[in-house]
What does this fold into?
Amino acid sequence: MNLTYRAAEGVAESNNPLIANMIVTIVVFLLLLILLKKFAWGPLVNMMKAREEHVASEINSAEKSRKDAEVYVEQQQAELNKARTEARDLLESSRRQAEAEQARAMEQARLETEMSKEEARRAIERERAEAQAALKNDVALQAIAAARHVMKTQLATDEAAQRALVDQFLADTKGTN
It folds into this structure.
């Protein structure tokens, strides 16, 4: 039995340092965990929170910038549409103004043509009246010459009487036409 006791003692002695080693390791590990929690885990968690907040802030900032850019694009699109509308209105206004100017020019030309026609008609009437008066005068002179030739008598010396006679003759002939 001695042998068995000694063998058991040897095992117990040899297990003692192992258990003690294990207990020391566990205590050191727990101590290390406590120290890590106190000195490393807190700053590490704080750093991770700060990083998380920074990333969230950057995401929010990027989202705000995207929204601002969308608003800016919409404003620019609205201004572009407004400029296009103004340009279209300006072109339409210019076209209407050109048409109105063309209509005014056509009306002016028509009026000038009418005035020229009226002026020409008056000039023709005036020249016709002058021609008629000249013709009347020539006819009167020819009639007087013919009457003088025919009558060489008592009317030969009284030219005023001859003229009155011709005027009377022309008035009579005018009344019959």
